[in-house]
Each structure stands twice: as C-alpha cells, then as structure tokens.
Design a protein that fits this description.
With about 475 residues, the chain is of the alpha+beta class. Among the domains are: about 90 residues, Lipocalin, CATH 2.40.128; about 200 residues, 3-Layer(aba) Sandwich (Beta-lactamase). The strands form 5 sheets. The chain has an 8-stranded antiparallel barrel with strand order 1-2-3-4-5-6-7-8. It has a 6-stranded antiparallel beta sheet with strand order 10-9-21-20-19-18, with helices on both faces. Strand 2 and strand 3 form a beta hairpin. The N and C termini lie far apart (about 70 Å). About 40% of the residues are buried.
Length: about 475
C-alpha cells in the first residue's frame, strides 16, 4: 500500500512538473511566424525572431515586445494577452487573433531584420576588453571632454561596458554622462547610434512641463493658476461638477487634477489604453468623473500632460512641436526630432511621445542642471526650473514636481537624490545637482523592470562616494 501510494505521488509530481515546463519550439519553427502583419488602428506590426536567444518579438514602431510560446500557434504577450496565429488550407501562417477579438492578417513575408538589432556590438569576442574613447565634438552645441579630473571611475565604467556587451544587461541602447558641463562618456549599442532618434515615452512629459514654463514666460498663458475648462469652451463635458471647474494648469503639472484616471489604480475609470483609441482624447479625459478635489492626492494620469499640451497649442496658436521648434529646441540646438502630437487614435501606439537623439536628451538635462540657462541665454525662467524640481505632490510614493520626479539611488550605502525625467522601457534623464552630473540612459525594457537605475547606482555614482 505504501509503495503504491509512493508511486502515485511520484507520478503526480512528474505530471505536475511536466505540465509546468515551457512549450519548447526551435528557432526554425519560430521563423515561420516572421513577417509584417496588420495591427490595431490600421497600424502595422512586425514579428521577428532573435538568432541570439531564440526569442520571438512583436515590433511596433521602435519597440520590441517578447511573446511567450504556450503551444503551437499560441503565444502570450507581456501582459498575458493571447496572440493566436491561424493558417490557411496549405498550413501557412496567414494572420493572428489578438485577445480572441481582433482578426489581423499577414501582409507580407518579405521582411529583413539587421543583424545589429540582436547584438550589443558586432564582431566582439569572449575576451573583449573595453577601451575608453572620449566623445567627439560634433559642433552641435554640446561641449565634450574626457574623464580626466571628473571623479568618474574608468574601471567601473569599463565593467559596466563589459556587462552590457556580454548580455548581463540586455537591451541597453545608449549611456551618456555629462560632468561639469561636458559630455565625457557616450556609448551606443545594437542598431542605435548618436544620430538615431529614440522614443522618450513618458519622459516627454518633462518637455511639456518646460514648454508650459516658456509659454507662461512669453505671455501666451497668463498664469499657472488659470482654470483649465475655459480653454475648452467649444466642448460640453460629462460630470461637469464644481470640483472639475476648479482644475488649474498647475494641477495638471503636479498630477493633482482629481480626474479618475490613475494609471497605477486598476479600479480607476479612466485608462490610457482605452483613451488611446478614443476619437478625441481631450473629450475623453475631461469627461471623466472626479475621484478627488483638484490639488488633492497625486495620481499618475497620462491625460494631464495631454490636456496641458493642447492648452499650449490653443494659447500659442501653434502645434506643440512647432512651438517647441521655435523656442526650446531652437535655443539649445535641437534640430532633429519627431513629435506626432495628435491626441486622437492616430497616436494610439505612440501616445504623442517625443523622439530625440540621446545627445539632445543630454542637452535638455544640462539645461535644467544649469537652471534654464544655455550659452548665456535664459531659455527657461530659473524660477520655473526651481518650481519644476520642488515637491508639490506625492505620486506612487515618490516626491513629484512639475512633471518631474524626485528619486534617490543607493550606491554602496551612499544615497544620492536626483531629479528625473523617465519613460517606460528605461528612458531616463537623471540630474544630480550636487554632483554637477547628468546621466542619460535609453533602453528597450518595455513593460518590464529596467536596468537603468542599476547602471547608475553600481557603475556611475559610486565613484563619488567619500573614500
């Protein structure tokens, strides 16, 4: 009886263990799914397979998302949504179902993926050794220098480079460091390079904050205390309570609008994923009910900067990208950018985000480090920079300014406080005022934990610990 009981237990354990194993599929089998497909809102999606790690990716614009194989023709994305491929009578892949609702067809099998997109650096060997080279002066308005007398630790930076290149830290796209006003470290990986635009995701919000300060300084907007709803007199909004009428421009900047749209609250009525395909994002956002008074609790709500960007457009009678081009970008020498700011379904996959070179992200960080001053010109009022960095609310447990975060990193037991513009995937502009330091990291860790903070905490900041 005991022997039979033991055999039964072992059988169940083996069955359970087997059932928990991941579905295994070869590289050649995965290649069958590669191609260009339809996607939501008339967009296109590419399916690619990495020869480096045999992982299948869905690529939307510049973003890569892993798909996990469950069984034949069935995958799940990183948010557990099902992606089920279907075949024709000849057993060829001809499309996929997304979340069992949308039927999306294969458009073309003719697609090539550059080898550079899969490897941090091509033609490196197992005994690769990093050799530092100081950034070149490109006459783009950014001064460059070397690591001498910066306090930065070349040994730590070399270790960081080794680990990015050997895959310990995958999908890091660029690392730049400005110390004492000069770009002293600049490295790119995979298919990224210094002239390639990179999506900023929510780091775009900090640019909208800067443009708000400029619009107020130039007199387009009277005050940060102006009420929001009068800017949209052509609309009729739902839930138009007295509380909603109290929302100010400053409430949008501090994520204290009171609108029920907290991204981190699954019970919130407003949701950026729903908003993405609404005909009019302004209507959708300002139709939402209030779940708090304006100026109350901080709630991370993507509607707030979208509304703010539209207010700037109305006040200046220019598109937001054009206003940026004529002011902020012109003054600090940003010539190359891509910014589709259209709060409607045409931005459903880009969320009105800004795309910049990493060097231009660095300029923006340096501008704020220097209190809005660039080459002797006050581009942004000093007072606006100070207010942007000051604590106005607490959002997701972190001090929050005007669409800027205050965040600390611990480096070998020493705590460093910085101001941060950040976006999904690991897009980070860190400003450490006390160190006269700006770090820029871009990456492709979409919808997952990014290594950006760890790279700062382990390889950059420890150089400044007291010996």
């Amino acid at each position: 009886m005991k022997k039979y009981y033991l055999i039964t237990i072992l059988t169940l354990l083996n069955f359970f263990s087997y059932s928990q194993e991941k579905y295994r599929i070869t590289y050649d089998q995965l290649k069958e799914y590669e191609g260009i497909y339809e996607y939501l809102n008339n967009a296109k999606l590419k399916i690619a397979v990495s020869p480096k790690d045999t992982i299948i990716y869905a690529i939307i614009n510049e973003s890569k998302y892993t798909l996990m194989p469950i069984k034949k023709d069935l995958f799940t994305d990183m948010t557990k949504n099902e992606v089920r491929f279907f075949r024709n009578k000849k057993n060829n892949i001809v499309g996929y179902y997304y979340t069992n609702k949308d039927t999306l067809n294969l458009l073309s099998k003719k697609v090539k993926f550059p080898k550079e997109m899969w490897y941090p650096r091509l033609n490196t060997t197992s005994n690769y050794t990093y050799v530092y080279q100081h950034p070149k002066n490109d006459n783009d308005g950014l001064m460059t220098g070397n690591l001498d007398n910066t306090g930065l630790d070349i040994a730590l930076l070399s270790e960081m480079m080794q680990k990015i290149i050997d895959g310990t830290y995958p999908n890091v796209h660029s690392v730049l460091i400005i110390k004492d006003g000069k770009l002293v470290f600049e490295e790119y990986f995979y298919e990224h390079h210094k002239n390639k635009l990179h999506e900023l995701r929510s780091a775009t919000k900090s640019f909208i904050s800067a443009l708000t300060g400029i619009a107020i300084d130039k007199g387009y907007i009277k005050s940060k205390n102006e009420k929001v709803l009068p800017y949209f007199s052509e609309y009729t909004f739902k839930n138009n309570t007295d509380a909603k009428k109290q929302i100010t421009i400053e409430n949008l900047l501090t994520n204290q609008s009171g609108l029920d749209c907290d991204t981190y609250n699954p019970k919130a009525i407003g949701n950026e994923s729903i908003m993405a395909y609404e005909k009019d994002w302004i209507q959708y956002s300002l139709d939402l009910p209030m779940n708090d008074s304006a100026g109350g609790i901080g709630q991370y709500c993507s509607s707030n900067p979208i509304i703010l960007g539209r207010i700037i457009e109305k006040a200046t009678k220019m598109s937001l990208p054009e206003f940026a081009k004529q002011t902020l970008f012109k003054d600090i020498g940003i010539k190359y950018f891509d910014w589709h700011f259209k709060p409607d379904p045409s931005s459903g996959e880009t969320f009105c985000q800004l795309n910049l070179r990493s060097r231009d992200m660095a300029k923006f960080g340096l501008l704020f480090l220097n209190n809005g001053l660039w080459n002797g010109k006050q581009v942004i009022p000093k007072e606006w920079v100070e207010q942007s960095f000051a604590k106005h609310s607490v959002v997701s447990g972190l001090d929050y300014g005007y669409l800027w975060w205050t965040k600390y990193l611990d480096a070998n037991g020493v705590r460093y406080y910085g101001k941060l513009a950040q976006g999904n995937g690991g897009q980070k502009i860190y400003i450490f005022k006390e160190l006269n330091l700006v770090t820029i990291i871009t990456a492709g860790h979409y919808n997952m934990q990014s290594s950006s903070n760890e790279l700062n905490a382990k390889y950059i900041l420890p150089a400044f610990n007291k010996k």
